[in-house]
Write a structure and sequence with these properties.
mainly beta
Length: 365
């Protein structure tokens, strides 16, 4: 070993959330072999109802999950849990769990400074802010912001926040509201531990914005619209936090006329390609980005080898994409051609019961 080198080994893990009852193992832990594309299950955790969405703090080896619980009156409410990750064993251990919003949640996010969690409640129409304790455990709920209004479709008769994503510099929080056809911009007042509503960006009527991804280098962002199967490209002003609609493209082939609803969106590390999932067409769509305009051009549609790809993720290296097919009860591994963005099914998959979230992360052993 040369002077100054450290003998540090890393393992790529994949964490999954799912629809499950409390007596079922709803959270899964897998190792991922990047040479063979093989997923190997190493751990699981039960005791939580519908731990559907996760967030991983790889540096501190912490996992966060939402789930459902009930209040003293028996009404369903949100819950958040923190887990310590044992990278050596490939297992997780519960640190703590706390109630969150007064309605069940569908998404969890963490700020870059590890001070807060945000949770969004699709059914309750609200977004909640929770403090994180110094040891990484879930702290108190410090603020809740209720959305109001509606849009043009029957499914949009009320607000339906579906996700929250921080800007690359962490200054702004963007909440995609499927029910309002809006992206609502907040900042976090760290003195009051409160969400401050700044402005709204209107997406076209009936779109149903669901999840969002920022370009890693250029001033663009992309939102996938669940209800009309499209992706909207946006110009992003990092100084003001403002978004401006540039264009919208379909996620579906021109000759497809069946039912479909979009779910997840991701962008490659170099910002050259955007990926989205189609539930119904059961595919991943691949777009190339124009570096000068931010606009998208369709490159590929590829089947996900299972029904209802609710979520997917690119691995940190960018060499693979893992799709979570809720109705296929499987995780499916694709190889990414870094030159043209296209995907190739590797033949590798793993069983998983009703997976709806998949998070890959390198952890130091």
């Amino acid at each position: 070993m040369e002077m100054g080198e450290t003998n540090v080994s890393e393992q790529l893990f994949v964490f999954t959330g799912s629809y499950s009852e409390a007596d079922e193992p709803g959270i899964g832990v897998y190792t991922f072999d990047e040479e063979s594309g093989q997923l190997t299950k190493t751990g699981e955790m039960g005791g939580f109802k519908n731990p559907t969405f996760l967030n991983v703090d790889a540096g501190r080896r912490l996992l966060y999950a939402i789930s459902e619980t009930v209040n003293e009156e028996g009404a369903r409410i949100g819950e958040a849990a923190a887990f310590a990750i044992d990278a050596g064993r490939g297992t997780i251990r519960l640190l703590n769990r706390k109630p969150t919003t007064a309605a069940t949640t569908c998404h969890i996010q963490r700020d870059a400074d590890n001070r807060y969690l945000t949770v969004t409640s699709y059914h309750g129409g609200m977004v909640g802010l929770l403090r994180l304790e110094e040891d990484g455990s879930v702290g108190e709920l410090t603020d809740v912001r209720q959305h109001s209004g509606s849009s043009v479709r029957p499914a949009q008769d009320r607000p339906h926040p579906h996700s929250s994503f921080y800007s690359p510099d962490g200054r702004y929080l963007f909440v995609q509201d499927l029910g309002l056809d809006q992206i609502v911009t907040y900042s976090v007042d760290q003195d009051r531990h409160a969400l401050v509503r700044l402005e709204e960006t209107n997406i076209h009527g009936g779109a149903g914005p669901r999840h969002m991804a920022f370009h890693p280098a250029a001033p663009y962002a992309y939102v996938i619209n669940e209800l009309d199967s499209s992706v909207t490209a946006l110009a992003y002003d990092s100084a003001s936090g403002s978004l401006r609609v540039l264009d919208t493209v379909s996620t579906l082939p021109a000759d497809y006329n069946g039912d479909n609803g979009c779910a997840e969106i991701a962008i490659s590390k170099d910002g050259r390609f955007v990926y989205g999932s189609n539930r119904g067409h059961d595919s991943i769509v691949v777009f190339a980005t124009d570096p000068d305009s931010g606009l998208l051009r369709t490159v590929q549609h590829i089947p996900t080898e299972g029904g209802h790809p609710r979520h997917f993720a690119l691995t940190p290296s960018g060499n693979h994409l893992i799709a979570a097919n809720r109705d296929g009860n499987n995780l499916v591994v694709f190889e990414v051609d870094r030159d043209n963005g296209r995907l190739r099914f590797t033949g590798q998959m793993a069983e998983a019961s009703k997976p709806v979230c998949v998070i890959p992360a390198y952890l130091t052993l």
